[in-house]
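Structure, all two chains, one model.
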Amino acid sequence: MTDRARRLILAERPTAMVDESTVRMEEGDVPEPGEGEALARVRYLSIDPTIRTWMDDAPGYLPPIGIGEVVRGGGVAEVLTSNCKLYEPGDLLFGLTGWQDYVIADGGQRAMQKLPPGVSPTAALGVLGLNGTTAYFGLLDVGALKEGDVVVVSGAAGATGSAAGQIAKIKGAAKVVGIAGGPEKCAWIVDELGFDAAIDYKSEDVSARLRELCPDGIDLYFDNVGGEILNACLANLAMRGRIVLCGAIASYNDRERSFGPTNYPALIIRRGRMEGFIVLDYFDRLAGAQAELAGWLGEGRLKSTEHIVDGLEHAPEALNLLFTGGNTGKVLVRV
Amino acid sequence: MTDRARRLILAERPTAMVDESTVRMEEGDVPEPGEGEALARVRYLSIDPTIRTWMDDAPGYLPPIGIGEVVRGGGVAEVLTSNCKLYEPGDLLFGLTGWQDYVIADGGQRAMQKLPPGVSPTAALGVLGLNGTTAYFGLLDVGALKEGDVVVVSGAAGATGSAAGQIAKIKGAAKVVGIAGGPEKCAWIVDELGFDAAIDYKSEDVSARLRELCPDGIDLYFDNVGGEILNACLANLAMRGRIVLCGAIASYNDRERSFGPTNYPALIIRRGRMEGFIVLDYFDRLAGAQAELAGWLGEGRLKSTEHIVDGLEHAPEALNLLFTGGNTGKVLVRV
């Protein structure tokens, strides 16, 4: 433990990937918990594409991170000292820790939650956390997955995509095709996770391969990336196909040259639907989803992997991995 | 009546608006009805944007019109002679007559239907026909219109748009804003049809006006046009806003420079939905919708107007009116 407290603050708004001029390290004293508060040491940070969107001065589902503020992000922290009856020293908490060494937990509305028994910090941030539940509600609620559906998932080797593909198989999809970058990721999702097929968008013609693998069209496309892959899926949509918009990482670092899916009229011809969602809306049903996910995890039917980056100072590079495709599975920073 | 039978055939596929080189008049003998068939004289043609899409060699909800074939289109025809027990001379039939003087009705699967009693030919092709029912199912089924919704309709002075706006008011929308081109159309939809407000896309900043008129966002956008107006509505979507994709006339004559709505990620942030449909899917419920529409029409709560073009030979120009905005209300050709 350091005696000084480090925090990564948003110094200026990035126009592309984050770097030292946009996210800067500051040091200060370790904060003192007041009455009703606890001091916790951040152990892991959850690195998610959405963090990049919060850095833009654009309307979103949460306000932008202010200039000079600690970068917002989820994580797991361990309670050191507590003046709050909710928390005891040694408790592991998860919630919006921010990119810093220490966080004050106050039991308020945006309280840090205690980790449920038997759940590891990394699972809490990934497959049983926002990634797993995002995949779960996106597929089952928004996408209304039915048995026998042909499902396509992009960002398929990422934390959310890998969970989405496996959940689709568990819930009876006839075929699950994953789109990922590079032969290793493609092999992993097929050989380890049980996807039926993979498309390497870096070396293959995505639209042609989709036509080949899904000759009757795509019933459900779980979209993590947007861009030309979304366009290719629109072109191959089945009658009454559903597109679940989870994210659009293809454009997060390129606000200037924004992308619009030119094939959107396929939604008319095929009577299709394209719908967005944010998992936070399912807050009151998270526990049920987590219980089901934990069951599959215990049975070995749902697998996950982590890409761990060591050191708070490397959080910006860890974030960039999501956009360069440098990760397989959940990206975490061990602080 | 001419002794010769004229027919407009698709001579080559248009790349922009239709003209003499793409749609050509041919003359031949008046067809002879065979056993079980009737000969009918076409009286009115329904001029609809979708006809333009059938001229492209692109996948659609119906096969493209073949080169050398009569242009496909709806219309009303009067039976002259009949060898079919379903039809008698003098009967008015509606269905896919095609762009020609005479049509053979055979009572088969794509039969011409008799006009219901009390329904005029022009109403059967417009407000009680595909336009009215498209507006009805698009708003109520696909768009799931709720009382108190803020509704925006584009192509609002057209046959479908004008019906959509009025039906939204009848069904309890809190506010209905129409987008149309030019001051006359804007005045007509507000003063005659009871829209709450109009935006003239030819002279106003659509997005700025939408922000002003719908400060809490758009709950339901009925899209007839696509293009930048769709993009402006995406930017002004309310939480859980729905976009009903009915048509995309902004792009029907410009396949090369196709448009993609760059603001589609608003669907994620606002948890919105964009869904396409074709009214033909509601075939088994058309009669109920027509009855309700006819009731409103009788009560004076639903109004329509027609833009009639005289002469089969002017059907191509009539079609082009839909894309130049030269019409108010339903475009019909009186053959």
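Residues 71 and 99 of chain B are 5 Å apart (CA to CA).
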